Structure formats: structure tokens, C-alpha cells
Amino acid sequence: MIAALLVALLLANSLQIIAETPALRGSFFSPTAGQWGAEQLLAGEWSDLGDGSHSLRVSFLACLIWSLVAMAIPAGVLIVRKQFARLPRLLIWFGISGLWGLLWVIALVGQFLGLATLLQATVPFWIALTMSGCLYEIATALFPLQVNDDETGKPNRRVPLAVLLFMGIYVLIYTSMNWGLWFNLRLPHGDSAMYEEHLWNVLHGKGFRSYLDQGLFWGEHIQFVHLFLLPLYALWPSQLFMELSESLALASGAIPVYWLALRSGGNRRAALLLSAAYLCYFPMQFLDIAIDLKTFRPIAFGIPLVLFALDQLERKHYGWAALLLALSLTCKEDYAIVVFSIGLALLAMSVRDQPWKLRTAASRFGLACVIIGPVYLLAALKAIRWFRSGVEVHYAGYFSKFGSSTSEIIWTMATNPLLLIQELATVNTLNYALAILLPVAFLPLRSPARLLSCLPMFVLLCLNELAQDPRHHFHAPLVPLLFWAAAGGLINGGWTFRKTSKNEETQPVDTSLATQRARFAFCCSLGTAIWFSMSPLGVAFWDTGSQWHWRTLYVPDKRAEMWSRVEGTIPKSARVASTDFVHPRFTHHERSYDYSDYKRRVAGNTTNVPEDTEYIVIDTRHPYSEIRSPEQIRELQESPEEWDLLDDPTDGYFLVLRRRSQPGT
């Protein structure tokens, strides 16, 4: 009882700190929801600080009451189920969040700025871990672990109905969300609908390109997996088809995850739980809809391809594995690093079994991957520069601290380890590690050889100056490697290719351990999704004050209604320049140019529209709009004699300009 009261006091302290600190509240709720909760649920009152600012103070007693309620709910379940032995573990889970508050007080009193920064950055993970642990204890009490002959067995090609059901739910939810963005004009063209424009232009003889910029797409990436969609796209040429295809592809990764987990853990229930954890894994979900609402990304198709390749590797079907890895290279040149990393892991496994001998097919396959991966990557980068007329690849700028060119970046990383360590030893690196590992209960750490395959990509992700968390698309190649390692961590540590000699006695394996670990991984995927996911699993989806609220993003508003008055007025034969969020509606026109402040090669490296532009369409209400009225349009300011402002039937939501005389006439 004393221990429970102490934990409750610590938990109440953490709750009070979070409720009274706007930056900490913002890690969980929108400003509106956070403030409402502090005022209404925690008896918060505003106090004048004397300098014109105000601070919110909440009642510690209210925090203590809510802490006791939070502790009583899972404890009640355990007591009803007579799982008294699990009550101390429940206190440990709540104690984790209580410990955070204690460390925060120590950091403030001792003025340990580094510790305070670390605690502020990681606070959602502390709370998520507590919630995940409570979910695990409740699940274990309600569904006790039982191992019987029906749950264990050898891997086969059969996919359980439950896995297909989970996949169907995922596809239904994320396709609906993607389509909602489309109908609500919240889906951007850049890095999303531009890929649909690629297929439309190829289908109509315009080349593998988007008119977002000059030249073929090969000058950006060696990335063409979406061309394989052409036969079906020809039947349904729409961005909606593209979104459905990507959601199906991502969901299909649950199948090889199930097979990999079944092979490692020997338990069907564990395999089912890990495949469900994959579908709830918030870094994977952000590849379907990124934090900046970019949706369709060819790089996402590499996840199921690599997962199926890893499954074929474990089945010792090296030809199929090689083919699938080769196909993953069509998703983006980044997957060459994945090929190298898989080879590295296979060699590590081989060295463990037969030191410095490459006698097995797996070790020879690994050696080939270690060689082919870097060779392909260098060749791809050289090809991209050739298509860019010798200009350095654009993403070299993501690592500017190491140099301005690919060769300089690689050389600096190799010869200046101090700089490399300095850039890696940061709070951001720890945050990134927590974001990718906590949702799978740190299972990859139990599989050191497979975890080795994650290291090269993880290092690059942490050094990327553009995106420092797994809510964009850069981390896609890491996801299949993480789940390979997670599957290996269920029981055997991931030494999949280790052979047992005929004279060596094998110890029986308790497959219930795999189920326990997989169940905890599933609970962790849910616990982290609550605070990080944009799906219905996440608080942000339901938070009315959040910019990610379902009604804000996915339900057509007045702006989308007004668009219907404009769309049909511009002929399909026209060459149109438009702002980003209406740009996807013009990819089937003769030309669809970008209208923004970016300098484009297609416009002579200026911010002007291309000379053959016939119409300009400006969305004055999109999230990044800086133009609200005709007086702000640069064409009407700089060359009013060339453009007519058409009548506006949209109450100012959209402005349309038409060139007075067609170019060349």
C-alpha cells in the first residue's frame, strides 16, 4: 500500500508538471484541448506573473485523484482476474512515468539543462511506455498465455484469416484517409500527385516526367517502381488508384512479417501479434500519409518487397530473394544500402557459425550483397548526375555539415570520426532510436546480427538535416530490417542461418516466451500510436483543436465546395500553372506547371510561370497561401497587359488568370 501511494504521488507530480508547462502539454494535445483539460479536469487557474504574462496552475490534489483513478482501472482488472502477482509489475509501469517527473524536478533544482532538454524531448515516450505496459498487463490478465498444439507449428505459406482481416482494416482506414485528403484538396502535388503525373505522361507519350520541373525524372532519383502500375492505371487513371495501391502494398508487408515471426518464434499467436504490431507501427503509417500530408511515395513499395525477400532468404530460395531485392532497387536508390546491410548481417551470421569461412550459400549471397549494394548506389548517383548535366544530387544538401558533394560527404564521414560522433551523440538520435524501437518493444535489440543490418541506414537518418524523426519518408528502407530483427528477437536472437550438428542436442523451446514478447510489442505499437499516429488510433485524429483532426483533413469543406465551380472552366487542352494543392487536378491537362516562389528550370530558373502558360490558378486558402487577393498576384503587378482576371464565382477562394494572347501568336 505504501509503495502504491508513493507511485501515485510521483505520477501526480508528473501530471502536474506536464499540465502546467505548455511545451509539455503540446507533446500530447492541441493547445485548445490541453488547456481545457488542465482547467476543467485538473482545477487549473490562471495567475498573473506581473509582467503581462500569465501561467496556468493546476491542483495537485486533482492530479493525485486522476493518478489514483488511472492506477485503479488496470489494478481492478488484475484483481478481478485474480492476477495478484502482476500488481507489483503494474506499479513499475506507472513508476516509469513517475520517475520522469522526479528527474524533471532534479533537473530544474540542479539546473541541469541537458537533462531537462532530454526529458522534454522524450516525455511522450515515457508516458507511452507506461500505457503500453498497462495494456500488456491487462491483456495478459484477460487472455492468459496458453501453448497448445494448435498454436505451434512449422512455417508454411498459408496466411491466417486474421492477418488478412487486419490488412483489410488497415487498407480501408488509410485509403479512406487518403481519398479524404484528395476530395478535400489537402493532397499536394509535389512528392505525391507528381508520381501519378508520371504515369499519365508516359501513357500519353510525354515521357517519364512531371512538368514540376524540366527534364526526365531520372535527374531526381532512379525510382520507377510505380511504372509497374501502368496496366492497371490505364484502366483507372486516377490519383485515387495510386493511393489505394500504396495502402495495399504497405498492408501486404504484414504477410511476410507473420511468416518471419512464425519461423523465429515457432508460435502462430506470436506471429499474428507481431504482424498486427507492424500494421499499428506509426513510422510505417507515416509512409502512407506523412506529417506534411504527402501521400503516394514509390519508396514505400520497397517495404513489402524487402520483407518478402527476407522471407525467401530464410526459406533458402536465393533466386527469388535476389529478384525481390533487385525489384526493391526500383523503389529508390536508397535500397542499395538495404542490400548491403542484409549482406552484412548474413556475413555476421556466417562468421559466428564458421569463422572466416564462406562455405554456405547464405554467406556467399551475403558477400554478393555487400559488393553489389555500394556498386549500384555509386552507379545510380552517377546516372542521376548525368541526367542533371553534372549538377550534384539534390539530397547531398541534407548532409551539408560533411560537405557539398557525395564524394566529399563520404570522405568526411570516413576520415573525421570525431565529427561523425559529435553529430550522432545528440538528443535527436536518442529520440529517433526511441521512435523506431519502442513501438516494437525494443525486440530488435535481442537480435544483434539482424540489428547490424539496421545500423547503416539508422546512422544516415540521424545525420539527415531535413527530417529528424520517422514521420516523413526517408526511413522507409529501415522498416523491413527492423521487423526482420524484431522477428528474430522473439526467441532465438536472430541467428536464423545457424546449423546444428548431428551430435549436438537441441533444447526444447518454450514458445510462450515468443507470445509474451510479441504481445508486448503489439501493446507498445498501440501505446505509441496513441500519441504519434495520425490514424484513428491517435489522439490527434479526434482532438478538435488539432490540425490533424479528422473533420479538418478528410471531410470536404467550403473550399472544396468552391473548387467545383472552377474546375470545369479550364479546358483539358490548356497549359496551366497552379498552386500546390490544386495542382493535382491539372495533371491530365496538356501541361501542369507549379505556381510558387520556387525557381524552376522549366521557367528558366526564375519564379515566373513558363512562357507557354495559358492559365494561372491560385488557391488563396490552402495552408501555405500567401496570396489572398488579386492585388498580390505578381503577374497583374508586373505584366497586367498580358493577363485577364476571370470572374470569381468562389467568393475569393480561387483566383483564375487567363493569358490574353496565346504564346507565339
Question: Layout of SSEs?
Answer:
Blueprint: H1 2-20, H2 22-25, H3 31-40, E1 45-48, E2 54-57, H4 60-80, H5 87-109, H6 113-142, H7 161-183, H8 189-203, H9 230-235, H10 239-252, H11 254-265, H12 268-280, H13 282-285, H14 302-314, H15 318-328, H16 335-353, H17 361-387, H18 406-415, H19 417-424, H20 427-437, H21 448-463, H22 478-488, H23 512-532, H24 539-542, H25 550-554, H26 558-567, E3 575-578, E4 591-594, E5 615-619, H27 634-638, E6 643-645, E7 654-659
Parallel strand pairs: 3-4, 3-5
Antiparallel strand pairs: 1-2, 5-7, 6-7
Written account of the structure:
- α6 (113-142) packs parallel to α20 and α14 (302-314) runs antiparallel to α15 (318-328).
- The chain has helices spanning 2-20, 22-25, 31-40, 60-80, 87-109, 113-142, 161-183, 189-203, 230-235, 239-252, 254-265, 268-280, 282-285, 302-314, 318-328, 335-353, 361-387, 406-415, 417-424, 427-437, 448-463, 478-488, 512-532, 539-542, 550-554, 558-567, 634-638, and strands at residues 45-48, 54-57, 575-578, 591-594, 615-619, 643-645, 654-659.
- The chain starts with a helix and ends in a 6-residue tail after the last strand.
- With 665 residues, it is mostly helical.
- Helices cover 55% and strands 5% of the residues.
- The strands form two sheets. Strands 4-3-5-7-6 form a five-stranded mixed beta sheet, with helices on one face. Strands 1-2 form a two-stranded antiparallel ribbon.
- β1 and β2 (54-57) form a beta hairpin.
